[in-house]
Write a structure and sequence with these properties.
Distance between the termini: 40 Å
Largest sheet: 7 strands, mixed
Shape: globular
Structural class: mainly beta
Number of strands: 11
Order of helices and strands: EEEEEEEEEEE
Number of helices: 0
Helix content: under 10%
Strand content: over 45%
């Protein structure tokens, strides 16, 4: 049984930075794509960023390009989301997810992921 645990959320002022981490355990996620999604109050969950199993290909939603970076630290079996130049509209619960994904379009779909973390709150004040 695989387990994903997020950490690193918190309260930050607009323009600030946070780094979210997603630690994987309980099974091998070596060949799994990893993704980050977020859900703001009253809104549906949305795709934020994803990477293929090797980390050689990354995907981002348009609103975070140039500000957020997804990357892995394979030695620690951890995926990170570096968040810079944060905006109030980035406020949400952030979830990491893992799945066996092939076609690029599937990376943006929550249904493509089999494992999910419990979420970590990010709040950006104006």
């Amino acid at each position: 049984q695989g387990l994903l645990v997020e950490s690193g959320g918190g309260l930050v002022q607009a323009g600030g930075s946070l780094r979210l981490s997603c630690a994987a355990s309980g099974r091998r996620f070596s060949y799994y794509a990893m993704g980050w999604f977020r859900q703001a109050p009253g809104k549906e969950r949305e795709f934020v960023a994803a990477m293929n199993w090797s980390g050689s290909i990354t995907y981002y939603t348009d609103s975070v390009k140039g500000r957020l970076t997804i990357y892995s630290d394979n030695t620690e079996n951890t995926v990170h989301l570096q968040m810079n130049s944060l905006k109030p509209e980035d406020t949400a619960v952030y979830y990491c997810a893992a799945g066996l994904i092939g076609p690029p379009l599937q990376y943006r779909l929550g249904t493509s992921y089999n494992y999910w973390g419990q979420g970590t709150q990010v709040t950006v004040s104006s």
